Amino acid sequence: MSRSAQRLVGIVALLLLGMLSLPAAAYVLDGPGTENWIVPVQLVAMATAGAATTIALPGMARADATPARRALTGAWWGLLAALAGVAISWFALNGIRGA
Description:
- The chain is mainly α.
- The chain has one domain (3-94).
- The chain has helices at 3-29, 38-56, 67-94.
- α1 (3-29) runs antiparallel to α2 (38-56), α1 (3-29) packs across α3 and α2 (38-56) packs across α3.
């Protein structure tokens, strides 16, 4: 698979995970003592998913990047996808004018 195809597949996969990660974390952690853990767990899960995706698809990082550098780059991709996923979900549910 070419580098650009790897990047496209990785970004689409991370965006889908980003849109689903916050509702999934809220579903699992919505309780009287755990509601403050929803966002931190979502961010850690997305950073981990981004690192795993970038390790699996090396085209998402620079060509000369070491595996550790690819994992760090992937963690940032995951956090960016978490932010973009929440924004896409917000606009899909509420529209441009908001809630």
